[in-house]
Fold each of these.
Amino acid sequence: MVQSWLQVSIRAGVRDLDALSDFVIERGSPGVVIKRGGIDAFFPSSRRNAALRRDLRRFVADRLRAAPRVEWKRVRPENWQHSWKRFIKPSRVGKSFWVTPPWLTPPRFRRRRVITIEPGMAFGTGTHGTTRACMEFLEVVRDRVGANKFQVLDVGTGSGILAITAALLGATKVCAIDNDPVALEVAAENLRANGVAEKILLSDKHLSAIQQRFTVVVANLTAETIDDLAAGLQKRLASNGYLILSGLLHRQAPAIARRIAGNFRVLERRRKREWTSLLLRRKN
């Protein structure tokens, strides 16, 4: 079946463009075009579109300085490629990777690996600051512990990009879980496209059903979900293990850090636009 798409055009003041771009990417838009005086964003048509429109109305009402003009329209499948693909570019992430959609070839660079991600209905294309920070932190932890002790649990894997990153960094064990069937389908395809499907256990298990312990647990989720899962995330960490938390707005990060302060110390914070990502280490 041919995928159909929705385009939302938002005309707003220049000071609101970063916040709008982050919002639509967080909600799963694989293509965002920033123009003078506004943005165009694209979303796959799905049952979630009504909730997406509602969330955008709330975001606009609660967060922006002035009410923007918002227009929605359906993009015909035959015009989809010309609508946004030309705006998606290879992205250099950390010191190890190029992230690219499958229709583009990244620049050649001998010391970088290529991760190919098909933009779709699952979050995580390597363009959003929260995803990039998690990839960078995975590099940091791998360098700290060594590949032979690098074992990763990716909670809420989305597109699978963080699990792919861990596998390409040499992790001896990678488990990726998500409760969204669409995300699992997208992740499975991305794992195959990057030649790591046999190195990653992809599952719809709930965090509470995971029994193993890992040297690294990464959760690029919302602050509310991280708060709900805090106890479970800690239980899945080995002694002195590393916890990577992302998807946090700047104002949310201190509360999340306090929530788990008794068992962890914050090693590093990374800010990208209005987002903060945390690298923490378990105290015992």
Amino acid sequence: MVDPVPFHPDLRWAARGLPRGVGKPWLVWLLRRMPMPTPRPPAGVEVRVHALEGRGAAAVRVIGAPRDRRPRPALLWIHGGGYVIGQASQDDWLCARFSQALDAVIVSVDYRLAPEHPFPTPVEDCFAAYEWLLREAPALGVDSRRVAIGGASAGGGLAAALALMLHDRRRPAPRLQLLVYPMLDDRTVLRAVDDRHHRLWNPASNRFGWSQYLGKAPGAPDVTDHAAPGRRVDCRGLPPAWIGVGTLDLFHDEDVAYAERLRAAGVPVETEVVPGAFHGFDQVLPTADVSRRFFETQVAALRSALSTT
């Protein structure tokens, strides 16, 4: 029988061996206690760690700071992990790629994780990192007028929430919010979905991640849009967005809906929907042609947003 929803040809072989979900209590417990490999950045790319004063365990990793005094653009990057796992160092190689492709400084946020630190701590850590980046811009060799924010999965959700928070608190807006298959809306747990083609993050994982982050059952009417930005009703005045997601990603529908809501509010939005791609496909197979093209569209969007014009 022919598969009615085939995986992308570049991803089909990998999809056969990947789990449907990693957001399980026992697996999260194990992953958080296993040594996390830190990918070595390319030669010549320096990584420096800075603690954020008064923010507990939160810190930032500065990647690609220039050696000369010419101000460069910057990207505040937020790692994924369903709000419950992960650390900034896991994306050192990705951040180095952004830095080299854009000649930019990348500040990667090591925010604190749920359930020990549920909402609002993770997004407040990201807010503090953004404020730190703007404050330290001269020392970092950054042009504070050319800053973007971005992240993948839960990191994309935090980037979207940060954009809302900056707007609502009347702080300087980023040039772009780069949302890579972002985890935006806790109400997705209420939908009945076909789970056959999900990989790495499925409905059970989603319910667990949101429950830990919110500190209660997801889907309740009192969840704020700073916690779940997909709930935002009035999107006027938000910064331009790039949103990318695969058709076989659990977050596809909520991501496309958010893009449509932004666009309807007059916010410039570029969407990149990858047929047959599952969640995190570009991190599992970064050298596949489909993953390279996905990354190149992100770089193009950032380059356009961070230009001096």
Amino acid sequence: MKLYALDIPEEAAEIAGWLERHLVGTHLAELVAELTAVAGPGTSLSLRQLLTHHRADVLRRGLDVLGPEKLRLLLHQPALLLELQELVLTEGEAYWDRVPLTAEMRGAIEQAERSLQPSLKPKPRQRAESRAWFARPWLAALASAAAVLLVVSAWEFWLRPPPGAPGPDWGWARPGALSQEFPAPAYLARLAEAAAQWRQQRPQTADGLARRLADLRLGCTTLLLAEHRPLDAKTRDWLRERCRAWADKLDQQLSALEKGADPLQVRTEVDQIVDRLVDALHAKAKELQA
């Protein structure tokens, strides 16, 4: 199970390129769902309002023209990314053909070219017309799987949370768990206490444990995306580095569970991971108090 929001760059200068790769990739719906789970769907701005006079520049030169504040708005109003993808797919200029592709996308392109070539070969009278949509290799890859349609419809029907849908009521993903109004030692201690809530329920079935583990894993994403204002830069870096390591270990346990591992053994392994991360947070809190 891969969570794409974990790859959000820490440097603001890298955000534009990272988002561009998702806009021309095949996992934007998953990313939007993850961001929505943390930030909510965000409906205060329309895409037109966000782009304002930058619309033509975005289509011609990419997302760098928006600047850090508007890129941050995109992350906090992730539903707009789906609208932006549609705009880029239909009206984007040559810049968007040069966005670097992942190995996965290159494989999809090769498969799409093989399957689409016979049916998409233009007729002679069409050759002088403006550039056809299938001339964009990454768009052809998306279209080969009907991804444009499926991304939008799957998001609208399956991934958009219904109004008032509750999130986890425990751990780091619980509303208010990452309140920024505490001094650094207390802030870290509260993070430790929130993580320790893992032990308040002890599911024994694979399904129950998977749900509990997914809530814990969502908490890691929430923690990585949080501002951590009470912490200095060095401590923030430490926390995010540790959280990535914890997230990787939780991913491994969830994968083992999905492959048929004994739920009680997986739960024991997760207990140990949580105990270590709780100890690490308490130790860092005491270090900052010294």
Amino acid sequence: MPYEIFDLNPVTRITAGAVGKPGQRTFYIQARQDDRVVTLLCEKQQVAALALGAEQLLEQLAEKDPERAGPPDAVLDIDMSLEEPLEPDLRVGQMGLGYDEERNLLVLVAQELLPEDADPSTASSARFWATAAQMRTLARHAAEVIAAGRPLCPLCGEPMDPENPDAHFCPRKNGHSRPTTE
């Protein structure tokens, strides 16, 4: 893909989602500004970090100025489904969050993942500017998307196969199975 900067300032809609069965899902962040839709291909951990980071940034903002952050339980009642076609504009390598105090908008900045030998200055990037309510709605929805995945092992925290949890090799059990009670 050629170098491009996607700057949706402000977004009219922002969401995250996953396609596929747990354990084989593909994750996306998607934003819209009027007729323009930008889709980012992500890793599950990146979507989880976005959900956590957005909530933390909104908490910090609320501590400084509760009016700017809005009510902590206020989320938008909108459809958070991904829009088709799901054709990613870039694969995310790095993400960050920021806040523009003057405009009272949060910004999600994503930079393209490049091969190791590529010039970093050729990486495409995306900037999605959103209100506190939009970002809070995104964070809560993204957390739900992550939670809908494979169950985590209570001992090691690694994902387990939901159809065959006994097949999970847990390093904390050191290769031993749990004792069964009869």
